[in-house]
Design goal:
Length: about 350
């Protein structure tokens, strides 16, 4: 039981693009009242032992339990100040926004990831029912909620209630339109929990079209490159991408979870070869940002980013969102975040910080 085990756990789950992408997800380890939690903006795949922030478990639990008063902005600022003050002396990194939830979960290790297979449940219309049927009440379901303090406050009450009803602490918590938390006292038990869930839901889920690229280049990349004024453009075609392009909700795909929105914006552009230039400009003018994903039926999808790494990440998040949508078909079809939450995330300071903090490889 140590920080090096936590680093190994983080790297292992963080290296699987079907579990987590970019700076998403987080891990922690607690011992003697101290929580070691991932710093914001770090990637799980290349975490080192220095990438964790040491914080006081009890202080974090009391932040989650407390009622803060004031406007959204005032509450955010007060919570951020209390979070920073919950760090051990000498710590200068900013903790993950989900640090308080890590403190609430009772196992020594906490793993929080955004796996597309399980997000096929959290982002499905009948997700909560499917979860109840599959796990017989063994997992906690948290309905769509503002991330950060609001989530931690809700989890504080619901985790306590779960423990009272079950006579044991909750080990698996599903967050609607977000991801899943696992907790256990050993890394081996975390692995047993994830293997059991991936096995069960894997058998139950639809088989996806092949993600193997059928095309890696398109003459339209040059047109898009010129429109995007020097940004990097990546193109891919595959059966999986075709399935996404055929869905009538293609443009809404990034509103599945906060993570997709952070890197891809809140909307994709769907256009035609002839309409590309005009639609690109019209999208930028009406949405206030240039499209980061451009889909063309019968052609494929383009990811536009400031660097090769960022364009690659955007492409990966597009494929991830398509997988979620297809898995969700097994539970009543996809369910996107409400427009209230979409607008909240668009303006959220913490996520702006996270998107900016992720470095190129
Ligand atoms: Zn998350």
């Amino acid at each position: 039981m140590s920080l090096s085990d936590l680093r190994a756990l983080s790297n292992r789950y963080g290296s699987n693009p079907d579990y987590v992408l970019g700076g998403g997800g987080n891990t922690s380890f607690k011992e003697n009242g101290i929580l070691y939690v991932k710093a914001s903006g770090q990637r799980l795949s290349d975490m080192t032992e220095e990438g964790f922030v040491a914080m006081e478990v009890e202080k974090l639990r009391s932040i989650a339990a407390r009622e803060y008063e004031g406007t959204d902005k005032e509450v955010e600022a007060a919570v951020l100040a209390d979070m920073m003050a919950a760090r051990l002396p000498g710590e200068d990194k900013r903790p993950s926004v989900e640090a308080a939830v890590h403190a609430l979960m009772e196992g020594a290790y906490v793993l929080h990831i955004h796996p597309n297979l399980l997000n096929g449940i959290t982002c499905a219309r009948q997700g909560e029912i499917t979860l109840k049927v599959m796990l017989q009440g063994l997992a906690l379901w948290i309905p769509e909620i503002k991330p950060g303090y609001t989530l931690a406050h809700k989890a504080s009450g619901d985790l306590a209630k779960f423990k009272e009803e079950h006579g044991a602490p909750c080990q698996i918590m599903f967050l609607q339109n977000h991801g899943v938390f696992f907790t256990a006292d050993t890394v081996e038990e975390i692995d047993r929990l994830t293997a059991a869930l991936f096995g069960a839901f894997g058998r139950f889920s639809p088989i996806l079209p092949s993600a193997e690229p059928t095309a890696k280049a398109s003459p339209l990349s040059e047109t898009l490159s010129a429109l995007a004024e020097g940004k990097k453009v990546l193109f891919e075609g595959s059966d999986l991408i075709d399935a996404g392009l055929a869905a009538d909700y293609f443009e809404k795909l990034p509103t599945f979870t906060p993570d997709h929105m952070v890197y891809c914006g809140h909307k994709f552009l769907l256009t035609t070869p002839e309409g590309l230039a005009a639609d690109y400009e019209a999208f930028a003018a009406s949405e206030g940002f240039a499209p980061k994903v451009v889909g063309i039926k019968g052609v494929g999808a383009f990811a536009v980013g400031e660097s090769d790494y960022k364009a690659g990440l955007i492409l990966a998040l597009l494929k991830d969102a398509i997988k979620i949508a297809l898995y969700a078909e097994g539970s009543g079809g996809p369910r996107f975040q409400s427009s209230f939450l979409v607008n909240f995330i668009r303006n959220w300071e913490v996520e702006t910080y996270r998107a900016g903090a992720i470095s190129d490889k």
